[in-house]
Design goal:
Elements: E1 3-10, H1 12-15, H2 23-34, E2 38-45, H3 51-60, H4 62-67, E3 72-76, H5 79-83, H6 88-105, E4 111-114, H7 132-149, E5 152-154, H8 171-188
Parallel strand pairs: 1-2, 1-3, 3-4, 4-5
Helix pairs in contact: 2-8, 3-6, 6-7
């Protein structure tokens, strides 16, 4: 059996807190249908985690994660940092450590950073629409760190119909994000959805 490993680091958005499957599992399923090999999807995310908590979680499982030999790692973190008013300086330090660890874990340092999604107008508390200014600031940090580490960045193109509460993906949103991630990976392989 031929197989590849997709490893995804994140929080409740990645784990699929409001859907049965998260976008990583959907991405793996889409990839299996398009490419004639299996995908081992490792969804290494925890609801409620901030960047520093994710960093420490990766550290605690570092040897096991390295042993999985992921071909590609994605990182989507920061929503809880925005909610908790983490300073941009501290977010940058924690996020940079996630990148260092991710590059050491991934084969050929193949790490893709996913921008923090913006909040829609009717987002539910404890989030609010005005937090998008902080989202933009943190996404700027992500882009700066990506450039400094020679990593790629992607964004999910989502609408309010993809969201359960303005933050978390519903089932349709997880599927949509998974399809976009699979499309990104297919593009790397020189192909696209049939």
């Amino acid at each position: 059996m031929n197989w590849e490993t997709l490893m995804c680091f994140g929080d409740s958005i990645t784990i699929g807190a409001r859907s049965y499957l998260g976008y990583p599992e959907y991405a793996g399923s889409f990839l299996e249908k398009e490419i004639e090999n299996k995908w081992n999807v490792i969804n290494y995310a925890v609801s409620g985690y901030t960047a520093i908590e994710l960093c420490r979680y990766i550290t605690s499982g570092f040897e096991n994660l390295v042993s999985q030999s992921p071909g590609i790692i994605t990182v989507l973190i920061g929503t809880n940092d925005i909610k908790n008013s983490t300073s941009p300086e501290n977010f940058e330090i924690a996020y940079n450590q996630i990148l260092v660890k991710s590059k050491l874990i991934a084969m050929k340092a193949n790490v893709v950073l996913i921008k923090i999604p913006h909040f829609p107008e009717k987002v539910m508390y404890p989030y609010f629409f005005g937090m998008n200014q902080k989202v933009n600031e943190f996404n700027g940090i992500i882009e700066k760190l990506a450039a400094g580490n020679k990593l790629r960045v992607m964004s999910f193109d989502i609408t309010e119909n993809d969201l359960f509460d303005g933050v978390h993906f519903n089932e349709e949103g997880s599927m949509n994000a998974g399809r976009q991630l699979a499309g990104f990976i297919l593009s790397d392989k020189g192909t696209k959805f049939k």
